[in-house]
Protein: Chromate transporter
Organism: Clostridium boliviensis
Amino acid sequence: MIFIKLFWAFFNIGAFSFGGGYAAMPLIKQQIIVQNQWLTFNDFTDLITISQMTPGPIAINSATFVGNQIAGIPGAFFATLGCLLPSCLFVTVLSWAYNRYRNLSLMQDILGSLRPAVVSMIAVAGIDILLPAIFPSGSIAFLTGQWKLRPVIYFVVAIFLLRKRKDPIIVMVLCGIAEMAVQLVMPGV
């Protein structure tokens, strides 16, 4: 039964995560935290961080990680298969339809209307990951001890560097090195 639940949960994620991995994060969160309660929100943010540090798409890495956590290697297999199958089916059908109807203005209008929705999904996912880093207590309050300044600084510097077309891996490494340096100089701060 758990294998079917894992397959179905990640099949839904794979089927509706238009726009790539970042757009899939709200769907992943809904399935693994809210509906099935397989992970806590803190585990979810750790999962996203780990998924960014490993090769492969976020949704696939999440499926493999969650499946393994819940039901071992068979769980990882079924969750990953569930996540992959919709894409294989959709791409096959869509490539046929796109090649046949790509010159229709309706096709271009449909694709254009999906872009704002995808951007909003990416923004929500980013906010969901950023807020717990800044407000570890869970409540958004700018009282002393209720929020952290360093994640805000890392966020602003990372945006600046990424907008300057710096390599995202280098930006991540630099943020990690900066935090390591802070912890070595001022432990516990």
Remarks:
- Residues 58-101 form the longest helix (44 residues).
- The CA atoms of residues 45 and 129 lie 6 Å apart.
- The mean pLDDT is 87.
